[in-house]
Design goal:
single chain, 331 residues, alpha+beta, two-stranded antiparallel ribbon
Length: 331
């Protein structure tokens, strides 16, 4: 295709949406909910895995400590602002848009009310101490599969910086401005809007044809894939990995967020086997099979243990060249 073609030309795809300010008057008044978790809760660290890079258009933190998220829910688009009030032992949430009620109703689930970190018992040592200091960190559960599946596909076989740039570019070009007062935030495209992204815009965003084709496959199956958010571990993996191009790594990265799956191990990750092998066995190099053998005694908390290992900042000694970023825009 001609690289100078403008977005939407000859495709019926709308041009990138305006970033003009949205109304914040009475019509934009938020819905509000206050919730007492009844357990230690670190809101910022619990929600951090949902952020796709420091400039994610769908995620923001503000100086007052609030976390903002823009989501596309079954009820419509919505913006959620979550603020911990430790002195009161509560969390205050505000939401805007058609999806506001859906987001507020599921606030406890999002913040780990259904998670059970006490089920993981570690032997004395650095990892148990890391677990103790992270007692307020829960596994978030969004209940939204496509929201995590598409960016996970963009992260396949590329550096995180490349994937984050692609995500930003596509959301700002084809997403929806987030409702409410959070200027500059964007909701990810709907399944239909993803399906209409032209090939040259995938290219401009640095997404190769293999990954863009996988996105096209999953959005065509979006209703069936969203059902995985209510499935148990094995069934949800089977549903996602039945789609060509969605492997175990991509499914795990999705279900960790959509389902709060404490046992979803990111098999196929570039660094994780070496990091886990070093932390659990002092082994400089490990493959996926060796990593899984070390994690096996900790079912059904294997992903939770990986999170704890990563939180310590430990890593195996590194040798050889790093993964080099690709630039698909000039091919």
């Amino acid at each position: 295709m001609n690289g100078s073609a403008r977005p939407g030309a000859r495709t019926g795809v709308p041009a990138p949406r305006s970033t003009a300010p949205r109304s914040t008057g009475p019509a934009a008044a938020p819905a509000v909910r206050s919730w007492r978790p009844g357990f230690p809760l670190d809101v910022a660290r619990t929600l951090l895995p949902l952020r796709r890079g420091p400039a994610d258009p769908a995620y923001r933190t503000t100086p007052d400590g609030a976390v903002w998220r823009a989501s596309r829910t079954p009820a419509g688009v919505g913006t959620l602002r979550v603020l911990a009030r430790p002195s009161e032992g509560s969390v205050e949430a505000r939401a805007w848009g058609p999806g506001a009620a859906w987001l507020l109703e599921r606030l406890p689930r999002l913040l780990g009310a259904e998670d059970d970190p006490a089920g993981l018992v570690l032997p004395p040592g650095p990892l148990r101490e890391a677990q103790r200091t992270a007692a307020g960190v829960r596994l978030a559960r969004t209940g939204l599969v496509l929201e995590s599946l598409v960016p996970a596909i963009l992260e396949q076989k590329v550096t995180t910086g490349e994937a984050y740039r692609s995500w930003r570019t596509l959301l700002r070009a084809f997403g929806t401005p987030a409702p409410g007062p959070a200027e500059g935030m964007w909701v990810a495209p709907s399944a239909r809007e993803w399906s209409l992204v032209p090939s040259w815009d995938w290219h401009r965003a640095g997404v190769d044809p293999k990954r863009s084709a996988t996105v096209q496959r999953v959005v065509r199956l979006a209703p069936r894939l969203e059902e995985a958010s209510a499935m148990e571990h094995e069934a949800s993996f089977a549903r996602l990995t039945a789609v060509p191009g969605v492997g175990v790594w991509t499914a795990a990265e999705t279900l960790q967020r959509s389902n709060g799956d404490a046992d979803a191990v990111s098999v196929g990750d570039f660094h994780l086997p070496n990091t886990v092998g070093w932390a659990l066995a002092g082994r400089v190099r490990s493959d996926d099979a060796q990593m899984l053998a070390l994690l096996e005694p900790y079912r059904p908390h294997r992903h939770r243990l990986c999170r704890i290992v990563l939180s310590t900042g430990t890593h195996a000694p590194r040798f050889g060249p790093r993964l080099t970023p690709n630039d698909h825009r000039h091919r």
